[in-house]
Amino acid sequence: MTARETVVPVLLEKVYKLIQDKLDLAHRPLVTQLAQHLFSNVSHDDLTQRNESDLYGAVVSLWHHINEKKADEISVRVFNPTVSRQGWQSTHTIVEIVVPDSPFLVDSVKMALTRLDLSSHLMLHNPTQISRSDSGSVVGVSSGEGVFQSLFHIEVDRLSSKAEMTALKTELLDIFTDTSLVVNDWLTMVEKLKEVTDQVEQQKESIPVDGQRFDETLAFLRWLGEHNFTFMGYKEYDLVSVNGDTELQPTKEQGLGLFANSDRVRNVKLSEFSDSARLEAKKPYVLIVTKGNTASRIHRPAYNDYIGIKKFDKSGKVIGEHRFTGLYTSAVYNQTVETIPLVREKVERILDASGYREGSYSYKALHNILENYPRDELLQAREEELLEVGTGVVQMQDRDLLRLFVRKDPFGRFFSCMVYVTKDRYNTELRRQTQRILKQYFGCEEEVEFTTYFSESPLARTHYIVRVDNNNMDVDVKTIEQNLMEVSSTWDDRLSESIIANFGESKGLPLSKEYMRAFPRSYKEDMMPGSAVADIERLEALSEDNKLGMLFYRPQEEAADSKAVRLKLFYHSAEPIHLSDVMPMLENFGLRVIGESPYEVRKTNGTTYWILDFSMLHKSDQTIDLREARDLFQQAFAAIWAGELDSDGFNRLVLGAGLAGREISILRAYARYMRQVGFPFSQQYIEDTLSHYPDLAKGLVSLFGKRFDPKLRGSAKGQQDLIKKITEQLDHVESLDDDRIIRRYMEMITATLRTNYYQVDENKQAKPWLALKMRPSEIPDIPAPVPAFEIFVYAPDIEGVHLRGGKVARGGLRWSDRQEDFRTEILGLVKAQQVKNTVIVPVGAKGGFVCKRQHTMSGRDEIFAEGQRCYKRFIRALLDVSDNIIEGEVIPPKNVVRHDEDDPYLVVAADKGTATFSDLANSVSEEYNFWLGDAFASGGSNGYDHKAMGITAKGGWESVKRHFREMGINCQTTDFTAIGVGDMAGDVFGNGMLLSKHIRLQAAFNHMHIFIDPNPDSASSWVERDRLFNLPRSSWEDYNKELISQGGGIFSRRAKSISLTPEIQKMLGTKKASMAPNDLIKAILSMEVDLLWNGGIGTYVKSSNETHTDVGDRANDVLRINGGDLKAKVVGEGGNLGMTQLGRIEYALTGGRVNTDFVDNVGGVDCSDNEVNIKIFLNGLVSNGDLTVKQRNQVLESMEDEVGEIVLDDAYCQAESISVTEHQGVSLVKEQIRFIHTMEKAGYLDRGLEYIPDDETLLEREKQGQGLTRPELSVLIAYGKMVLKEDLVSDDIANDEFHAQQLMQYFPTELRRNYSQHMDNHPLRAEIIATALANQMVNEMGCNFITRLQEETGANIVDIANAYAASREIYGLGQVLKSIRELDNISSSQAQYELLYHVRRTLRRLTRWLLRNRTGKQSVRALVELYQGDVVAITEKLDENLVAAEVEEHQAMAQVWIEQGVTAELANSVARLSSLYSALDISTVARETGKTVQQASKLYFNLGDRLSLHWFLKQINGQAVDNNWQALARAAFREDLDWQQRQLTGQVLNCGCGSDLDVIKALDEWMESNSVSLHRWESILNEFKVGSVHEFAKFSVALRELMLLNLNCMSKD
């Protein structure tokens, strides 16, 4: 096949062009030919990075070189060309050689460069036929004539020194000299061998050698001559004796080849030989075959082969040798042994000697080993040695062993070592180590040479030659072998051994197979096999469920006090753990990660594990004792990984203070609590403090333990000692901040009453949440208001707080989203709850929790499920620390040390976010077997559904109806306009906007839409709203647009702007053509309208003095208005927090009608409480077996309507009370201020917090004729009830049978009818009675009734309550009140309030009379029995016994009311209350004198008239008071007057005897007999009649005269 025409590279074309351009004509073709010849087989790679001028320069340089030398000259030039001198340049040193052509040149030159450690960068060489003219100048290049010369152009590493360049030149010249010697004498040496062979053959008989061997030797020598040996030198030696020594002497004839140079030939004394060499020399063999001791410089860099043929004399004695040196040709190495004489016989003999049967496995194996054995060895080694090697290798053939065979060179110059090892084990590392071991063992100076051989055999063979000066030494092959075995044993071998040693053979073997190749190389380099076994144990323990294992350790190399530690994580997954997941966790432990090595471990079955090895430095000042720290750290880390512990800086205490993860979570929980109560330090600062003072941190944890560990039973002494110790340690704390933090911890721990820290679940595991029950009042600087009890719940996924205003408290649980300050939110709500709950049995409570992982979730359902899970956890935590009641006995929770008394009442309710969670809460209650059962959370599936009942809206509507009534409108029969916040799907809005068919809803908005209907039709819009209400999940979008009046519509709040129709402009009173949605809402809120109904979430009205930030509802900042801008006449607050309190007050001061949210929407909480208390009652019956659960549920359901009525009645009465007080206006301001002061002093009321104005503001208002506004009165009423409720929970009240009726009245009729006998067993009996009584008293008597009477009489609350109840019953005022309330929408509300106030005043006076006149503890029933009959009798005949003028007065008063629509009967009876007040005095007199009531009555009234006592009483009542003392004086005057009148009546009655006494006659007689005294009295009265304004002193004097009159009359009797 012909080679492709090569394309001439462009570069070379340029070179040829330069030759054409630059040289003279004669030389051009010759130089061009030279160039083409030189470059003919240059590789293209060699041409890159070169330029034409340098190549041209090189060619021309060589051309000159050829020209300057003769054809047979050897010339070498070594130079560094420069442009200035040679005209071209190169970065390398140039070697130019021109020599006559001969074999071996290229090999030898390359070898020389290698020996001198020079790299060749370009070597151009070609034997070139050069013809010269006679004068010697070149005339033809490669023209087919002339002699061949070898031309070399070589570029080698640049040599800078002259010496190096000279050395290179000398070396090359030497080689060429040698080569020419060898080449020239080659044929002669072949001849010589033949000659010597023939000579030996003739001597066959006389030489003492085994004939067969002799023949082999001759055959071998002849075979060598047939081109199987490259001859390089020959010399003949004689063996002669010199002075008793034998020595080999070269003969006089010149040697051939290299030995032609006589320097290379010398005498050798036999005594200098080593023993083995001497033996060898004297052996009766013809041949000595061995290796020379120098490497060849020609052809191949191998050591020369040495063939010595002994010379024998006639008698067969050795007399000298023919020595040939050279190299075997490749044939010797490549032909099979069968073809090589001498060797083939050797092999046969070895095979025979082996004893293997021909054809057997071992025979073949041995044959194969010898066949592939290094030829040099086969030639040189003795048969015994070869046999030993062969059989040795056969025996190890299939075993994982390593064998070494050592052969000494008979001439003592080297050891030949054969190492056999399995192919798997052979690697460069093993080869290097073997070289090292051999070199060391044999004490060799030079590098050990090696040749490795692989075949299909499982073994690899490496032949090492160790050159020594003298190999005469004993060799312990086994020792070397042992060392080599050690070197060859891999990491995997050692692992395998360790596994089996550790796990035993049966378990270990399969394991070691699984992990044989599992570990990556990096792992093997870093770890010992022993530690891998430990890792395997951990890996084997992993599974899908248990994905993470770990080992925290300190490397052995490190000292015990070192900061360095390591952590191995074992992870069962195809993906490694991401660094960013682990690093922050480790950093939080106070570890600085300085390195991480991931190792992927792949078992043979394909399972993948990851081992991550972190090397770290520990930051703390303490030294870590790893034995103790390991478990703590590993448990904590595992818990963090599993999400059971938080990862933050507190974890530094694991290593820093030796605290367990759970113990740290105590400190963390308190820190989180500090955050919630606004403690000024950040969590990070607290973390730093504690890790700075680990001993104090430990102290705090053990203080917690001393206080709560059930084993220690909360011993006070232990705590005291520890607190003392910690306080002492605090003296060494420099920073004041740190001191504050630690002290705050102590205060919080000692303010903690209970914890569930020591409780375990059914699996004996600690609870994953921590509940701390505290008494916040014991924590300094806690923000007001301060709840009575608080439970703080902490877990990594949830935090929550439950605040209670007292022992019996209720309120909802809110799912909050204010992670950082949810307690602030809950605190605000609990305050509202406190005032709201005044209507119900429990005081206020509120709970809230945050789901801390919520932000990682997406999708409504996922978040909702998380909320439910957290809610259940939160409730479990609350129940963990609450007492239970079982069979009437209080049972404390297990493993909880209590530092407070029994406290079993815990109820929860729905709130924002948890509306549907009641069943969940009840399921937890059941799980805990909590005594409240499903009364725990109201409104569950077996409870009252507020939305279905519409109870919250209906309660609010009571207020709305009252506001309208006060304006003279009945909103149930008269159309009125309304705007609203919310939509028909909502409970409060939806229900509320259906409560009157006369609502004309003009506008409403929720978070998505704005609804506007400028001129609505009340009837059709009601129907449409009703449809939407019943449509599930409806929105304003669903409203039938056709029913909206002209110009109205439904607008999206997302719209950029909304254009306003003329109708909307008119409705809003604006001229703007369009508005942004938020501005439109603002305009709606400030439009003129009758009612604003709030049924939404958010705060829409503030006062002008508040900023939006103060309000704390960012979402609605853009549309909130000020109270002064709200033009609706009435506001109904169905929703919470629709207005700020200051906003309400501002609105009320401008004439708006509003209560507060807690008054208006009390319906919901009231209903829930009724449900809870009814359930508590019924659950008692269920557990006694009186009812089944199913029956219970039926009973509950059947009472729904009545419960609703009870609730609405409460709402009605509360609003009424506010109205009555408001109606009295300014006249009550002073009393109210007094009440406010009382509440403040007692620590109940925080004026600022409740926005009650200061005294100056109130007095200022009084001057302007304005009293307290309704929102302010609402607060006062709430506080009045709150305090009273607390004080009335006493046995004196609860055990009074009269008050006990309150308990009956509390429950619906069905329960009263069927189960009244069980009611006394109600666990909250006392609380229910107290609540009912307190509500009744405050609603009927106003907020300050009790405090006023306490001040005036000094009586205690129980006595006041009893006197009030008795008076009310004696006079039948309950019925009167009922009648007044029935006048709604019949009479004017003003008239109603007047009547109510009259009743209120009378009742107060009667109560005071009883307190003054009936000392000693008397039951209500006894008081009623004492007076009721007499009062009834006096009432019946009142008009007969009164003086005519007084009767007229009463009737005139009644007439005014009758004209306002009050029924005549009611008007007359209320008008006569002022006279009837005296009935108690009359009854007393009658009893004391033994006269009839009628007699006493007639006399009493007439006496009063005749002595002008009644007129005087009016003067007293009409006397204005400026301050409290004057008010007290006035009350005292009244009492004195009553008492005097009673005494005088008694005196008159005592005059006459007999039952038919004519009282008028008796009176006349009495007056006559006492005329002097009476005259004095009259003159004093005349003084009074002169002016209308009197000073208090006058009254004092007058009453003194009256008393003297009384005494005088008495003395006369």
Key features of this structure:
51% helix; elongated; seven-stranded mixed sheet; alpha+beta; 1613 residues
Please tell me about this protein's structure.
The protein is an alpha+beta fold and 1613 residues long. Helix content is 51%, strand content 15%. It has 65 helices and 39 strands. Strands 6, 7, 8, 9, 10, 11 and 12 form a seven-stranded antiparallel β-sheet that branches. Strands 21, 22, 23, 24, 25, 26 and 27 form a seven-stranded mixed β-sheet that branches. The chain has a six-stranded mixed β-sheet with strand order 33-32-31-30-36-39, sandwiched between helices. Helix 22 (661-676) crosses helix 24 (694-708), helix 41 packs across helix 45 and helix 50 packs parallel to helix 53. It starts with 9 loop residues before the first helix and ends with a helix. The model has no long low-confidence stretch (mean pLDDT 88).
